[in-house]
Design a protein that fits this description.
The radius of gyration is 18 Å and the shape is elongated. It has 9 helices and no strands. The protein has one domain: Tetracycline Repressor, domain 2. Helix content is 78%, strand content 0%. It is mostly helical and 193 residues long.
Length: 193
């Protein structure tokens, strides 16, 4: 039996390969064999570690979500005030490793997978609740009773920009997208006042 550090290394390689393979194809039309080849392991080993393509995809999304969380915490360091915290939360979704072409493709694949895979659906709900909670926490002092509606709007804008980016060609402008969501939020907060 391989040592735990080898198992961890192989699992990590398979997760990275899944993200890269989905990014290359831009679809869920990937195979465990293709992922395994990209990771430099056998299909049998990939099945041994994960059991199915859906489980590999879920592990890949768990990895992406951990990176997103780390980026969010990094951007919140030293930030005070609800509006600045909202800017940091929005920017985290478009920063670091979160807004690369292959990660965007993995997000789309993940949303599709969540329609039929219970673990993917659970993980998606966890992500959605965390984002909504972070947004609500900082919107309440600014928007009172309108905070839930505004949080849902900001979350929808984030998701929408990911979906649009998946079908776009050319270089992405993540900072510009985050700025557009910030500007929209400013407009909505001003209209409320």
């Amino acid at each position: 039996m391989p040592r735990p550090d080898i198992q961890t290394s192989r699992r990590r390689a398979l997760v990275q390969a899944a993200i890269a393979e989905i990014g290359k194809r831009g679809t869920l039309d990937v195979t465990v064999g293709g992922i395994a080849r990209r990771a430099g392991v056998s299909s049998a080993l990939a099945h041994h570690y994960f059991g199915s393509k859906d489980h590999i995809l879920t592990a890949a999304m768990r990895h992406i979500l951990q990176g997103l969380r780390a980026e969010h915490l990094r951007r919140l360091r030293g930030v005070t005030g609800p509006r600045e915290r909202l800017r940091a939360t929005i920017a985290a979704n478009f920063g670091g490793q979160s807004f690369r072409r292959e990660v965007i493709a993995a997000w789309l694949a993940f949303y599709v997978s969540a329609q039929h895979d219970r673990e993917a659906r659970r993980l998606l709900r966890v992500y959605q609740r965390r984002l909504r909670s972070a947004l609500l926490s900082d919107l309440r002092p600014l928007a009172g009773d309108d905070a839930p509606q505004l949080a849902d709007t900001v979350a929808a804008l984030i998701d929408g920009f990911y979906i649009r980016e998946a079908s776009r060609t050319g270089a992405a402008d993540p900072a510009g997208l985050a700025a557009r969501i910030d500007a929209t939020l400013d407009t909505l907060l001003e209209a409320r006042a």
